[in-house]
């Protein structure tokens, strides 16, 4: 599975959050980045080439800071230019792909709800993207929200990094089973750059994680059997 | 917490100590978190099985 991350950010170079996400994403195989703002520098955007590129990916992610409850203008411009009616509706060239949204907020996510300072939920505010995914026949993924990055502690940043990598590259939905498989895959890759002693440690860790997952699966089967007999 | 999980977290902690890459450290931290979640699910599932098998309804 290949993922394309389309970043819309007028001040990309100044953003610590975007730098963090980009460095993380580059460590992941089969994930590519495109900076929409760069596409609009100087020359006219090559619509056909962009459309051709999009068809190569099965997951497409729009990544942007929230500007006045929407994306920055460059993403809207890109959508207006590249997502032609023929491309999206007539030829169905985005059908069955996944559309993810990575949105960064300067305000606390907890305020985005009824009764909160921002009043509306993230899901409500991002509705136009969901409507687009629906029209294009894409699977809309739960938006990935990064809020107040500057206030995160080291261990929170570590978990954010992995959650982000899973969002862009793991098999959906992000349940325990799929997250476990993704981590085992990354641990296996990590082994390649390690000493023999550490490789052995990683092998034991992987074996133990997989055994625990098998145990969970067995327990689930047993519980289902008992429940089914009860009802 | 199970012995396996204690051992797992100890091993992950050791690997993390000598790990210079932030990305790899993050993967190890997330593996620890996953191990905790697995441990919790196993415990809860076993408790559920015990609870259902020993239900007073079946006495």
Automatic annotation (TrEMBL), chain A:
InterPro entries: Flavodoxin_fold, Flavoprotein-like_sf, KefG/KefF
Name of the protein: NAD(P)H dehydrogenase
Keyword terms, alphabetized: Oxidoreductase
SUPFAM superfamilies noted in UniProt: Flavoproteins
Residue ranges of every copy of the Flavodoxin-like fold domain listed in the record: 1-156
Signal peptide: none
GO MF annotation, one: electron transfer activity
Pfam families attached to this UniProt entry: Flavodoxin_2
Automatic annotation (TrEMBL), chain B:
Origin superkingdom: Bacteria
Name by which UniProt lists this protein: Uncharacterized protein
Species of provenance: Lentilactobacillus rapi DSM 19907 = JCM 15042
């Amino acid at each position: 599975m290949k993922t394309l991350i389309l970043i819309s950010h007028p001040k990309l170079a100044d953003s610590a959050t975007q730098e963090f996400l980009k460095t993380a994403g580059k460590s992941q195989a089969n994930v590519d980045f495109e900076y929409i703002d760069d596409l609009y520098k100087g020359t006219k955007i090559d619509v056909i080439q962009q459309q051709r590129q999009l068809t190569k990916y099965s997951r497409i992610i729009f990544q942007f800071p929230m500007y006045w409850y929407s994306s920055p203008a460059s993403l809207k411009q890109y959508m207006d230019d590249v997502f032609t009616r023929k491309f999206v509706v007539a030829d169905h060239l985005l059908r069955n792909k996944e559309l993810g949204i990575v949105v960064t907020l300067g305000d606390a996510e907890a305020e985005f709800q009824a009764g909160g300072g921002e009043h509306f939920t993230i899901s409500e505010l991002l509705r136009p993207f969901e409507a687009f995914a629906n029209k294009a026949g894409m699977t809309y993924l739960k938006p990935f929200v990064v809020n107040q990055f500057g206030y995160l502690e080291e261990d929170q940043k570590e978990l954010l990094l992995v959650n982000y990598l899973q969002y862009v590259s793991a098999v959906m939905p992000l349940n325990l089973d799929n997250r476990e498989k993704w981590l085992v895959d990354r641990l296996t890759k990590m082994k390649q750059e390690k000493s023999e002693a550490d490789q052995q440690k990683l092998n034991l860790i992987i074996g133990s994680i997989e055994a625990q997952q098998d145990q969970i699966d067995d327990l689930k089967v047993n519980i289902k059997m008992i429940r089914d007999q009860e009802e | 917490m199970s012995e396996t999980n204690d051992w797992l977290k100890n091993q992950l902690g050791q690997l993390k100590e000598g790990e210079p890459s932030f990305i790899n450290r993050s993967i190890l931290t997330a593996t620890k978190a996953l191990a905790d979640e697995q441990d919790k699910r196993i415990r809860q599932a076993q408790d559920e099985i015990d609870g259902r098998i020993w239900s007073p309804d079946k006495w």
